[in-house]
Amino acid sequence: MAFSSSCSSVKAVNSRWTSPSPSPSSRLAVIPAFLHRRYTASVKLTATSAALKTVEQTTLTEDNKFSTVGSDSDEYNPTLPKPRILVAEKLGEAGVNLLREFGDVDCSYDLSPEDLKKKVAESDALIVRSGTKVTREVFEAAKGRLKVVGRAGVGIDNVDLQAATEHGCLVVNAPTANTVAAAEHGIALLASMARNVAQADASIKAGKWERSKYVGVSLVGKTLAVMGFGKVGTEVARRAKGLGMNVISHDPYAPADRARALGVDLVSFDQAISTADFVSLHMPLTPATKKVFNDETFSKMKKGVRLINVARGGVIDEDALVRALDAGIVAQAALDVFCEEPPSKDSKLIQHENVTVTPHLGASTKEAQEGVAIEIAEAVAGALRGELSATAVNAPMVDPEVLSELTPYIVLAEKLGRLAVQLASGGKGVQSIRVVYRSARNRDDLDTRLLRAMITKGIIEPISDSYVNLVNADFIAKQKGLRISEERMVVDSSPEYPVDSIQVQILNVESNFAGAVSDSGDISIEGKVKYGVPHLTCVGSFGVDVSLEGNLILCRQVDQPGMIGQVGNILGEQNVNVNFMSVGRTVLRKQAIMAIGVDEEPEDKTLEKIGGVSAIEEFVFLKL
Ligand SMILES: NC(=O)c1ccc[n+]([C@@H]2O[C@H](COP(=O)([O-])OP(=O)(O)OC[C@H]3O[C@@H](n4cnc5c(N)ncnc54)[C@H](O)[C@@H]3O)[C@@H](O)[C@H]2O)c1
Ligand SMILES: O=C(O)[C@H](O)COP(=O)(O)O
């Protein structure tokens, strides 16, 4: 029998109750699951329902959020209800078909705000374009059922992200499929505005032939300022260069070398707007960009400038634009987007003879709409399966490789949080958490956001009725006054693994198990991943080694022979299966901690019998 005396060198006790070492093929791969149990992820995870709130529901059973990679649980489970997906705006057919393979799809367009609220209360996912306002009221009306909002396009300014996050609802978008369409529309507006195509067309249709009235301006040699050098802005710049234009750009966040590679100079805002003959807007609508084109900025523009907007109406003060048009500062404007959509019929801006308008058509090509539909359908279905989305807007985006590497540590993190909080006497006093990640990798090579979120989930869910997931973990922690500080320590272990150990400490709180209190007076537990399986390796100052499967009994006892046999017999008599057992001690023949992993939950009388063993000074039963 191997005993150990510190947390850093622990050996498992091989008794007849000790399960064989788990093989790498039984690696658990888990993710904070969003919701649905009908499917488990083909890649990584299964989901829990919003009802995942009690310790009982989070034990390792087939029916909950943990799945075994590559196991049969990757199969469709017909006994569980399909997720309901509400598609509230027209979506390309290919995307709808993809969604139908996965869930019950309700395509209901042009819903009133009231009808939308009614429908979301019965939906797991909602898909919109720019025409639906997904407000705080919508999330409130969903009463926790809505787990994913998919924005079939780029701009998410019509979704209340803060409210989504507070409600634990993931927002995903489809940011790439309509880039070219938007850029092409920008170029179409630029060229048609310069040559008065729309006005001349209307004039002929009105029976006129006005050749001298519609003399245009040439593009070649003119300076175009691209405001926002992101996906669309870059494509517009590329095309404008092909038209022989001199292109400059303003974007405080774009890398200069990417611009330079296209022959585009990144300049200041004032320099861009004061030197350009054409200004094309491609920045998102944010508090910083709202009405950034206003009386003051128009006054700095070159007289006779031409303006194109295929980004968002709200970046322009529309009344100021009318004034600038009337004053001749802005010679012409071509607008695809408006502060209010649709704009009012008698809007001075829309009716202005020097303004060309289209009804938010930037993304509206057949190709782009099919692409966007597929992109968003895949993102929503993935999120419903509990996968982390590469296009998540309000949750950490994690590279799939990093995710697969971190997956067993994510399981460990949640279990450590769950165990630690059960060791505190009186959950309400839990305020201050310290997490120490020991790793052989450089500090910058370990992204701990997922781990922190799962520790938070593990701590909060057993002591509250909150549903915690990756999206809302930080928010709920803050709301509950939980302070989580993180430390990373570089240790001399193998850099092949992202984390060597995770230690979770609950500071300034009493424990119901004195053995879990470390020398510093805090509840402290530590765990590692071994062969892909989370293990508890330290409780207070005692080293143990028990795989975190099933439930756990911790006993603090006088270190003497025969303890394992006595407790094992009590459990065996009550038909409670021991899956792992380990003993750690600090000083020979003084005190030891016995950690016993059990598959079943022992009855109270069984636990009482364990407590009755004379050498046992205290014990605690913990649900994983
Ligand atoms: N009209 C349409 O149908 C249509 C279609 C697609 C995209 N859009 C809109 O176009 C805009 C750009 O889309 P994208 O896909 O290129 O997004 P993107 O995120 O790739 O690019 C936006 C760029 O704007 C930059 N930016 C942010 N704040 C800025 C500021 N204050 N000044 C200058 N630049 C700033 C960012 O750094 C980023 O490079 C978005 O508003 C999107 O909603 C409209
Ligand atoms: O942000 C976008 O993707 C565009 O504005 C397209 O919006 P739409 O999906 O409403 O056409």
Automatic annotation (TrEMBL):
Recorded superkingdom: Eukaryota
Keywords recorded for this protein, A-Z: Amino-acid biosynthesis, Chloroplast, NAD, Oxidoreductase, Plastid, Serine biosynthesis, Transit peptide
E.C. number(s) listed in UniProt: 1.1.1.95
Pathway(s) of this molecule: Amino-acid biosynthesis; L-serine biosynthesis; L-serine from 3-phospho-D-glycerate: step 1/3
GO terms, molecular function: NAD binding; phosphoglycerate dehydrogenase activity
First-listed, main subcellular location of the protein, grouped into a coarse class: plastid
ACT domain mapped to chain residues: 552-624
Compartmental location: Plastid, Chloroplast
Catalyses which reaction(s): (2R)-3-phosphoglycerate + NAD(+) = 3-phosphooxypyruvate + NADH + H(+)
GO cellular component: chloroplast stroma
Matches recorded under InterPro entries: ACT_dom (IPR002912), D-isomer_2_OHA_DH_cat_dom (IPR006139), D-isomer_DH_CS (IPR029753), D-isomer_DH_CS1 (IPR029752), D-isomer_DH_NAD-bd (IPR006140), PGDH (IPR006236), PGDH_ASB_dom (IPR045626)
Biological processes per GO annotation: L-serine biosynthetic process
Similarity-based family: Belongs to the D-isomer specific 2-hydroxyacid dehydrogenase family.
Name this polypeptide is given: D-3-phosphoglycerate dehydrogenase
Source species: Arabidopsis suecica
The organism's taxonomic lineage, starting at the top: Eukaryota, Viridiplantae, Streptophyta, Embryophyta, Tracheophyta
